[in-house]
Amino acid sequence: MIKTIDLSKEFGNNSVLKNITTTIQPGEVVAVIGPSGSGKSTFLRCLNLLEQPSSGEIWFHDNEVANSNANKTEIRKNIGMVFQHFHLFPHMTVLENVTYAPVKVKKLKKDEAEQIAKELLAKVGLTDKESSYPNRLSGGQKQRVAIARALAMDPEAMLFDEPTSALDPEMVKEVLDVMKDLAQTGMTMVVVTHEMNFAKEVADRIMFLDEGRLMEEDKPQTFFNQPKTTRAKEFLDKVL
Amino acid sequence: MNLDFSQIVPSIPFILEGIGATLKFVSVSILFGLVLGTILALCKITNKKILKWPADIYTSIFRGTPLILQLMLIHYAIPQLTGYDIAIFLSAVLAFGLNSAAYVSEIIRAGILAVDQGQVEAAEALGVPYPAMMLSIILPQALKNILPALMNEFITLTKESALVSTIGYMDLMRRAEIVGAQLYRNFEPLLIAGIIYWIMIFILTNIGSFVERRMRQSD
Known about the structure:
Chain B: Keywords: Amino-acid transport, Cell membrane, Membrane, Transmembrane, Transmembrane helix, Transport. The complex is a heterodimer. Chain A is of the alpha/beta class.
């Protein structure tokens, strides 16, 4: 569904992503892991063109999107994104946060969008919060709203950029549970995460990045039990 | 000390009529300045030089020269150059609106830059087009933060509006001056005008606080 070929990104002289070639299949859950500064987030942000790649190709279905003047809006409508720091719209209620893009971008009718939003909020367990403002929510609740907001666009794939890293420990589970449920519905997901148990349990494939290179990609079992590279071994020794 | 208000009592309605004249041109100027200032601010935050430079030059000129000079230029120089006899009201609104836009654009620019960049990314990731993002996500948040600064600008503009008396606009100030000249008593009419200005600003300040409270609902 999403394919990258020799994807590279430089910030000035700093090369943060080096020739990443991979393919994300429909329905696949990919966990992107690696030390900080390894380019995980940059890789993720390139997929929906929040970062413009310096070179290489990104294919979404049958369209090359990184180098063409393709409409970024079209791609982003189809790929949802969840951020580490939620980035909910603070001046809108929870319901408005979730209905805003469907109404503005997909031109859904307001009551139609609200119905979808309510279903999604029920799914993430926040029915009673629909008229609250984000500032009244806990971190875990905010992140669940952010997931609902992204899902409201009915995307084909979801990108998660360290969705639990900014949360208090006791709130990590409620967000991961929502993501597990989502994975079970067959959603295509790319998750940058430090939650190794989540990666082990939910992901179909692990991408291990180090210093901007895709060092290893494998099934979780294989990767966690028999990492091939020394870098991966060292990393796993530290985090497990 | 020989204060005597009895003499100016018959002239009070004449002075009060100036309130309407002042309010009319101040409100049009504020609106004009706000709209133009927002457009200028949006030009300044782009990385397109063709938009950024004119906006910067505009601000530099209108902030860098006295308002009264701009007023005089518009009112007396335009007819000289073009032969078009510009109405006093139009001159006043142009001068104050154009001048205010320069200040407002800087306030709004600062407000936009202070909004978390994550908001832009969140909107982009949802596929929200730039105009909609600015209008319903970035500007409302910016506005909340800059409201006190904007109110300051509006208050300044309301008070400085007295400058239009120099081109003969029959505002509060001008009327107070006329009454003063007629009666050879300046203190009483000026005092009345001063009190009215103060009351207008007082009301404006309260409207500002009210709006601010409304916008802080989401906190």
